[in-house]
Design brief:
The chain is α+β, with helices and mostly antiparallel strands. Helix content is 43%, strand content 18%.
Amino acid sequence: MGRFASISVWVMTIVVITGTQAVAALEWKSLPTLPDKFGFAGPFAGVSNGALIVAGGANFPDGPPWEGHAKVWHDRIFILAKPDGQWTESTEKLPRPIGYGVSVSTASGIVCIGGSDAKRHYADVFALIWNDGRLDRRELPPLPFPLAEACGAAIGDVIYIAGGYESPTTTVASKRFLSIDLSATNPRWQELPTWPGPERILPVAGVQGGAFFLFGGAQLVPGADGKAKRNVLTDACKYAPASGWSRIADLPHPVTAAPSPAAPIGQSHLFILGGDDRTSFDVPPQDHPGFAKDILAYHTITDTWTKVGEMPHTPQAVTRLVPWAGGFVIPSGEIRPGIRTPEVRLFTTAAAKTGFGWINYLTLGVYPLIMLAISYRVGKKHTSDEFFRGGQRIPWWAASLSIYATMLSSITYMAIPAKAYATDWAYFVSVFAIVAVTPLVAYVYLPFFRQLNLTSAYEYLELRFNLAARWFGSASFLILQLGRTAIVLYLPSLALATVTQIDVVTCILLMGAISILMTFLGGVESVIWTDVAQTVILLAGAALSLAFIVFRSHLTVGEMFHTAVTHQKFFESATWNWHWTAPTMTVIFVGSFLANLIPYTASQDVIQRYLTTKNEKQAARAILSNAILTFPSSLLFFAVGTALYVFYRALPGRLDPTVSTDAVFPLFMVRELPAGVAGLVVAGIFAAAQPTSNLNSMATAVVTDFYQRARPGSPDAKILRLAQQLTVLFGVMGTAFAVLLAKMQMASLWDLFLQVIGLTGGSLAGLFALGIFTTRGNGKGALVGAVAGVVVLYIVQQYTKVTFFLYGGIGIVACFVVGYVASLILPGAGKSLEGLTIHTTRRPEPNVESLAVA
């Protein structure tokens, strides 16, 4: 046993090659072998509290079956506490010698289901739990009937079991599909509708994207001699708990008895390793060459199969595939009919890095130089008003492009194509919501920001309500924007690092430093003009990408469109009914309409753009033009996503299974675009990832809402210097938080933080609506409404299944309604509302020009 005490007798790396490009790397390691020279077929296997456990199974210890020796079942249990440790055999045993059941690793132990011995099949279900060096067994509700050689896997706390057969003498396999919810108070097995296809034994299960998959297996067919014959299968099915079964693409060749369940790789792939393809079906057992070596990858989005390589060792079948130690373990198993192996192997996957090339680096390097040159050119600012509002001399069209760039972050730049690629165009209806909300913003909200001569949007809240409302709004905005700055820097950097050789921290530091310097040099005017350049770059990059997707696919536009229509990639999933828990078209439109009130009416970074133009009518034109631009640009991004689907459906081998769905657009950029063009398009991501507007708007909010409010009459030079210092401070903080995310891999915790802080967004928009549309709203009532909006939205998020599309609207409505009612109950200080509501006289803006002049 000494030579097996350390991990890895050998290490082999396979790079999956498609065409001329490496798209993934598979690394294989040999773990300590089981302390049994024969090994086992059909063992239970899984992980409990970090330990790998292998139990039961069957072998031929006295000699091969073709020499007349009998199969022997076992009740032994082996534990490997860590990958570089040693196997120990537990003094505890299984209830009986048994094998060929299903085992599933869960939070409460390894659930072992069914199985057989030489005489019968069993319905027993129990959990094996490893805890502090002790192995315990806990009984669970039995199956409604005996079952062996089935497959199974878990989605969350729900275990699903499919196929198998109920008796060793039967000549017909099972076509029953069962589930049990272990989180239920009294869990019990339920029989579910069965799959569209024949009954089967030894199929491969799989779970990916919240769905259960069933692959291949063998159908039992009664033979002339009364014994069952095996008809191997190539069909495959998918079970979505919400919608039931559907057929998916057939396997490239028959697969039965492969390690199960299939390995979920990344967000959308399932790997099937080897198995019996029955190519040697008629070969005598003693001459059998072994099972298939193929590694097949199924892509759940494009519904395609690809052979991604071969196993470098003798394939193992009739065993489990267990997630452990950062990869997937194949413990023991059968290597030829009647022959087992004690070998235990672990494989891991990693993205194959692609060289970016000096031409792309050169193209990408020109981008920051252009941005800094623009900032330097407009950066000679001498007053705080120029730093905060650009001296109110920004042309309407530049302000329009800046609003567009502010609303389009790098996350959106990648997320819209990824959404269209993964699903369809149902979310496109949200674009109509932006168009619909624009007249309300331009002709109702805008006059209040312009005619009151504001610098910070939250000045209005003090004028209309009180200082507490202003500070609530400004503080909420600051915390949220600081979080957004980190996320906007981190996520695209992570995506780029995944598919290129650029380090994620390098990406973050580069984008952070450029953003700080650009904003420091020129204030909001610099931000706006660099936004203009960034908008051109990102739209040009998306357009070039779309052209090259069509070109590289070797399909005509008509053929690509036909494929997209055939596979329902446009509006086929769209429904117009109202349902609180589902993203129907009606819900998306209404939710998006209300949600867009938050940035367009309550967020300083967007409202600040309204204040940079010469007059109100130019600001209105900027808002309207932004809506007009949103429509064709969204068409472009959705078209890119659909084209990517068609491209990777035609060429599925060019996908990298380890790359997330959200990074599919960057994946295409760096691996498919020609040199120079890839650099330009990646520059588009860098452009969208720069949080320059965040930094300037945060500095504006602090100086205007806190410093100047506390120290009125401060010298303008001191205010300008403080604003520049705050720009650097917020930039450094956002960059540091982004690096922290990258180093500590805290993305999920940070997302939770943003979700909690984002609870205030609806209340902010509700406060502005309460102030503008009512005369009864007062300061005390407004604060009660703001708190109510946060509390109600938190309850909705945590305790209901309401779709996230309605979160913003719920926060707005709750704040508005509760704030209005509270204002009727609570006394408010009497104050003039002139120019502060739509029901009172507005102050005319001086020197208003006509649209023609503008």
